[in-house]
Amino acid sequence: MSFGAALPSVDVAGVPADALVLDVREAEEWDAGHVEGALHIPMSDFVARFGEVTEAVAEGRRAYVMCRVGGRSAQVTQYLVQQGIDAVNIEGGMLAWEGAGRPMVTDNGSPAFVL
Questions:
Q1: Of the candidates 68, 88, 79, 89, the residue with the CA atom closest to the CA atom of residue 25
Q2: pTM exceeds 0.90, yes or no
Q3: Rg for the chain (alpha carbons), in Å?
Q4: DSSP character at residue 4
Q5: At a CB cut-off of 8 Å and minimum separation 6, what does 75 contact?
Q6: Inter-CA distances, 11 with 6, 78, 89, 102, Å
Q7: Is 99 exposed, middle or buried (0-12, 13-18, 19+ CB in 10 A)?
Q8: How confident is the model at residue 73, as a pLDDT?
Q9: What angle do CA 56, 50, 92 make, to 5 degrees?
């Protein structure tokens, strides 16, 4: 699948601290470590839970879409843009986020890492 130049994307340094991060990784990946305050909707549940996304962006917020390396999030970003939602793909995903030293958390307090 080709996305071309039309897919909006941003590197991890360009994600504001108060951004709406939409994490589309699966549950075990989320549990290992994620961006604090992110909205977790696994790609496998995405269509069924699409209403949660539209609710989160209702205030005109941009969705910053995240996965492990950027492939799944690119597909979700393309879908969101087609639905008229302001969304951008986070290039490099959680691996780039971790590599840039951006903060990560877990729900159980254990050290966060990218699975």
A1: 68
A2: yes
A3: 13
A4: G
A5: 1, 43
A6: 16, 17, 8, 12
A7: exposed
A8: 97
A9: 75
pLDDT tens for the 115 residues of the chain, in order: 444 457 999 999 999 999 999 999 999 999 999 999 999 999 999 999 999 999 999 888 999 999 999 999 999 999 999 999 999 999 999 999 999 999 999 999 999 999 9
Residue written as tokens 């549950």? Answer: 27
- Return d(Cα 85, Cα 95) in angstroms, integer: 25
> Helix, strand, or coil here: 23?
strand
User: What is the amino acid identity at position 46?
Assistant: F
**Catalytic residue chosen out of the listed positions 21, 35, 39, 67:** 67
Residues contacting residue 79 through CB under 8 Å, at least 6 positions apart: 46
Task: Tell me phi and psi for residue 51, to 5 degrees.
Answer: -60, -35
Do the Cβ atoms of 26 and 46 come closer than 8 Å? no
One-letter amino acid identity for 90? I
Is there a catalytic annotation at residue 20?
no
Residue 28 DSSP symbol: H
